[in-house]
Amino acid sequence: MAINGHKGSSWLYWHIYCNNCINDYVAASPKKGFSGKCPDCRATFRLIASDPSDLPEEYHPFFVSSVRRVYIENNNEDRDKLEHKVKHLKERLAAKIDNEKILTERCDSFATTIASHQKGEREAKYKAMDFVLKNDFLEVVMDACRRELRESRKMVEEPKSRTRYWGNM
């Protein structure tokens, strides 16, 4: 079968090319007739000649070309199915790209929100620490005031108790 008017061939690596084109490609390679590089994957392949007809007839049974003939049926129904599948896959790919954009935007939004909350938490933590320090300071002041109050009461009650004691004599 022909591909765009050319007979199809396949490399050992299953890349498909026109017979004449691949023979010209191999013939133009620097190491004519011994090896070549696949135009797609650049893998090196070995060959004695690009076509067994270049060899004497007695060597034909021993020649195994790395180029294989490929037959592709030109079935419009299969082609239509493949084109439909390609269209469907392109739509899925476009939807996937759109979803990735939406998810990236949401992720960025969440990251901004998280950063804002973290800042708020830090500020709340600093305020809480400030309140704790102020509370500790006030506790110390209140303890000092209580001691002073007790001492003041003792001083006030002490003269009263002396007067009672001396008054009974």
TrEMBL record:
InterPro entries: Znf_RING/FYVE/PHD. Residues 72-99 form a coiled coil. Keywords: Coiled coil. This is Uncharacterized protein.
